[in-house]
Design goal:
By secondary structure, the chain is α/β, with parallel strands linked by helices. It has 3 domains: 44 residues, Orthogonal Bundle (434 Repressor (Amino-terminal Domain)), CATH 1.10.260; 132 residues, Response regulator (Rossmann fold, 3-Layer(aba) Sandwich); 132 residues, Rossmann fold, CATH 3.40.50.2300. It has 12 helices and 12 strands. It has a 6-stranded parallel beta sheet, with helices on both faces. Strand 1, helix 5 and strand 2 form a beta-alpha-beta unit. The chain is elongated. The termini are far apart.
């Protein structure tokens, strides 16, 4: 059975209220008594109750993190960054996944209330505005990460997807590619539009045409969506010499489908990803991708939220803040100069 304050009181011969005040650092308790009580608490393995502490302070020291999918390797890296920052500050995480389902979103908001989280980091790109407003209505400080409707919130951390997409497109153009395809994810809203926009800007800057039949969107960003898209691209004549994928997961599916179709990468078609998830370095061939500073994004989001939590009571009208981070192109073996017969 767990040691209680009353157990410590019996051992030290003082009242349980004296033990409680000593353990909370109350200066009314003498140094000698406080030291005796703390030594007994440590010897007896006493652990303070987080629930009881939250009732006294009106703080749970827990941060809510809402994801679209806990299995998404991109957001798992962001969560690592959030967790590292949170633990250092004495906070724990309460993680929930919306799975793009309105019913689950409503339950998540209710759970955040029940668990008395001190604030929320919203990493689900498609979390509904209705439920987002509900969180705000309940008074939660909220920081959003790469959210497609971030304009509805005052505090956000972004990756510069337009710049990242331009880096990838520029790399392919410098290799000599002109017939470049773009594979997007309709569920990602603003993010896929920004990446498509970056692709279009760089193509126009190079004076290259953008072919409508080489722009294709799938209803999702998983490997299966990338796999399914390849049939569309292989029907186009002339074929694209390169495919820019919305993310690494879709690119992994594209690599598998091209291999199944007997199309060599990068000899016949170059393939790029976006995000630099851990497995992208272990595909065959290794995937050229855009390395987003995922853990830094998580840390920045957590630091901003903790700042909001600490200052909200004294300064409820904190200035809105938006921070944009840039990624870096990683060139691996999935891209090369186009085959001369394909140009």
């Amino acid at each position: 059975m767990a040691t209680t304050i009353k157990d410590i009181a019996r051992k030290t011969g003082v009242s349980h209220s004296t033990v409680s005040r000593a353990l909370s650092g109350n200066s009314a308790i003498s140094f000698q008594t406080s030291e005796k009580i703390r030594a007994a608490a440590q010897e007896m393995g006493y652990q303070p109750s987080a629930a009881a502490r939250s009732l006294k302070t009106n703080r749970s020291n827990a941060i809510g993190v809402i994801l679209s999918n806990v299995a998404d390797p991109f957001f798992s890296e962001i969560v690592f960054g959030i967790e590292e920052c949170a633990l250092e500050a004495g906070y724990s995480l309460f993680i929930a996944a919306s799975q793009h389902e309105p019913g689950r979103e409503k339950k998540i908001v209710q759970a955040m209330m029940e668990h008395r989280t001190d604030g929320v980091i919203l990493c689900s790109s498609s979390f509904s505005s209705e439920q987002g407003f509900q969180l705000l209505k309940y008074g939660f400080p909220i920081v959003v990460v790469n959210h497609q409707a971030a304009e509805n919130f005052h505090y956000s951390i972004y990756h510069d997807d337009i710049d990242g997409s331009r880096q990838i497109t520029r790399h392919l153009i410098e290799l000599g590619h002109k017939q470049i395809a773009y594979l997007g994810n309709t569920l990602s809203g603003r993010t896929t539009l920004d990446r498509l926009h970056g692709f279009e800007l760089e193509m126009k800057s190079a004076g290259l045409p953008i072919y409508g039949n080489l722009i294709h969107n799938e209803n999702g960003g998983d490997a299966i969506n990338g796999y399914q898209s390849v049939e569309t691209f292989l029907k186009v004549q002339p074929r694209p010499t390169a495919i820019i994928c919305f993310n690494d997961m879709m690119a992994i599916g594209v690599l598998k489908a091209l291999d199944s179709a007997g199309v060599k990468v990068p000899e016949e078609i170059s393939v790029t990803g976006f995000d630099n998830i851990s497995m992208s370095a272990f595909t065959s061939p290794a995937l050229t991708t855009l390395d987003q500073p995922k853990r830094s994004i998580g840390k920045e989001a957590c630091q901003l939220l903790l700042s909001l939590i600490r200052t909200q009571e004294n300064n409820p009208s904190i200035e809105p803040k938006e921070k944009i981070l840039k990624g870096k192109l990683l060139v691996r073996q999935s891209t090369a100069k186009p085959n001369s017969r394909s140009i």
